[in-house]
Amino acid sequence: MMPNYLRTTLRYLWRKRLFTALNILGLSIGLCAAFVIFRLVDYELSFDRAFADADDYVQVAIRNKSADVENGVTMVAMGLAPRIEQEVTGIDDIIPMYYHPDKAHGIDRRVATLPAYFDMVPYLWLAGDRVTAVAQPNQVVLTRSRAEQYYPKEKPADLIGKTIDYDENKVMTISGIVEDLPYNTSFDAQEFFRISQEEWPDDLEFGWRQNCLLFLKLHRGASRERVLQQINAINEKQNRAYFESFSSSYWYTFIPINKRHYAADYYSPTHRTVNSKVFYGLAGIAAFLLLLAIINYVNLSTALMPQRAREIGVRRTLGGVSHQLAWRFVGETVCVAVLALALSLAMQHWVIALFSDYFPEGMVDYLDYPRAAVYLVGLVSLIALLSGIYPAWLLTRINVVAALKGKVDRVGEGISFRRVLIVFQFVIAQVFVVGALVIGLQLRYTLTKDLGFRKDAVVAVDFPTVSKEADSLSVAKQLLFQQLLSRHPGVVVSALGDLPMGTSMVSHETEFVGPSGPVIMQLLGKTIGEGWMDLYEMQLVSGREPRIPAEEIVINESAAKAAGYPNAAAAIGELVENQRIVGVVADFHLYGLKVGIKPVKLSLKESGNKAKNISIRLTQHNWPATLAKISEEWTSLYPETPFDYQFYDEHIQQMHGQDHRLARIVNYSAVVTILIGCLGLFGLATLVSLQRMKEIGIRKVLGASVAGIVRMLSSDFVKLVLVSVVVASPIGWWVMNLWLENFAYRIDIQWWVFALAGVAAVVIALLTVSWQAFRAAVVNPVDSLRDE
């Protein structure tokens, strides 16, 4: 029975191979998108999934609030751990992780910790003892992969007792080898030491600037809130004066260790984090694409009903039961869905390879086959059910007598249900097109808007932050590097100091004595060097640049206005907490276009203080040669730190990296939705042309022109697309206005955006259906009327 059923089903699909191919292609595109998104989401959700005691362990993190901006960071002060050990109850284990930076390569997955770390993270021990492996300061535990780098031909057991000479001239003895964790994890350390007493200070001031991860194992039954209150009480007692002085505060919070990969609102330099909300957006896009493909299938299947009416009538006459016929049709849908799945599996390899740069490292090689199999079987079953149940139900409602007489011309149209589905398809496509246009315009605006400073041809370089040199020697090396740059003809000017747009600044609650009396405001501060304002071509509205050694500052226009000065010139010469205002600079953007311009002051770097950055303006030609020469100068002064630079305009563009990724996703989604919609229109246009072939022949005999017939066949579809434009425009306007609310400085959505999207939709629809209409219109009427 089943072989015969399968044979007749495949025979029917082959007989209607054009529509079968359109259905398979449409469903395969939707399935491919859904499977690629599943692989991405499943990969991200696989992180830290294997922790058996995840509920017992938490990571201590910090929330910091300054100048109405709240941030999170996962690094805490080294001194917090001993204070917790002494003063906080309800904790079984304290596990600090201090990343040991490699001077040449930055953080290189080398951490100092305590033996309790290996209780929290379950490694398979290949050699050594878990309890005593990091009992002494001169011991080191390696993962298998790191051990193979150091001793590629040695077995793990043979490595115990061997030594490694590190950069700091420390000789460490290998005391253990562990297997690399066999699952995706944010715990990616490769070498483990014991924290030394020198790294264990009792200092919590400015704790949010430290470089330590801290994990706690809470006592079973202990209240997390109570433990957190005790930790924050220590922080409040230690740093109350700091909070009051700078009107800034930070407090501690907990992150479950199996959720740290998803703590995207916490800055973490040690591991990559993701925003779990993005998963919902991606899942929504996949659902929409699948829904469009299902709509195509339903439209084409219901449109083919009149041609199948005689078959259904014969089967019903021979004893076929309605529900058997319905399930037979659902079976045909399952066959189409399975064929579409096979095609989609081939397509997804090509899609992932083509867009590999957009996917996180490791995703391409990761696939949980059992979970993927369950997902795909469930997805195909759902598609088959949704795609087949409505057309199958319609088949059971066909009048047998009318079907056998060939008088069934319309099935399933009802109140134009098929037209509603077409409109729905193009509404979704239009919303994506409008979104792509608006996002593209906003991102172009972020790149072209005057930010208040010149950003092109500027190279930003970070000085090494980890150094055992005396501050005086570090400052001398920075000044020498700047002096060496001034001799190179490819360098216009260089300046030490913070970048104009970025997160490096401090915030103070500052009192201005304005014309109307004292005014207290939150004032952001940036430290600059001589020539900094000239390098970035800052526009002075009034006054001059600050000079050394006087305590002089420059404020921006927003600060002058907030203080109540009637104009910029009125602020010149006024004292602000023992600093004299000598200039007012035109407002410039500090955080990007998502945040409004804040009051800010610029003060010169003190002669004995190190700078974090140096900015270098290049001439407009031969940049590679200039950068190569700068690299040589850098290596002569910092031989252990590679010359790592970034063009500042690229740095600014990366500040909107999430929005650029969103733009790419929306652009691709718009293309795919239009493609799926066009496949459906093409199939329906072909079917309508076949069904109306006799009518077209009669019209041609009566003198109708080819253009008139093409217009007649195309007009119905164009009207539906125009209706979708009318429906989609307010939806697109509402959605994109919600997105634009994230920007303090944004574009206004112009009417021509919707007009352009609508014209594009109409043109694409015309190109899709007019070819089939033209083919039908040029057929010789003798051929179309011959059977009569």
Automatic annotation (TrEMBL):
Mind telling me which Pfam families this protein's record contains?
A: FtsX, MacB_PCD
MF terms from GO for this chain are:
transmembrane transporter activity
List where in the cell it is found: Cell membrane
Keywords, A to Z, come to: Cell membrane, Membrane, Transmembrane, Transmembrane helix
Q: Identify its membrane topology class.
A: Multi-pass membrane protein
TM segments? 21-41, 278-300, 325-352, 372-396, 417-441, 668-690, 720-740, 752-774
User: Keyword DNA repair on this protein?
Assistant: no
Q: Which GO terms describe its cellular component?
A: plasma membrane
- The UniProt record lists the keyword Nucleotide-binding: no
ABC3 transporter permease C-terminal domain: residues covered: 285-399, 670-777
Q: Where is the MacB-like periplasmic core domain?
A: 20-233
PANTHER family hit by this protein: ABC-TYPE MACROLIDE FAMILY EXPORT SYSTEM PERMEASE COMPONENT 2, MEMBRANE COMPONENT OF TRANSPORTER-RELATED
Q: What is this protein called?
A: ABC transporter permease
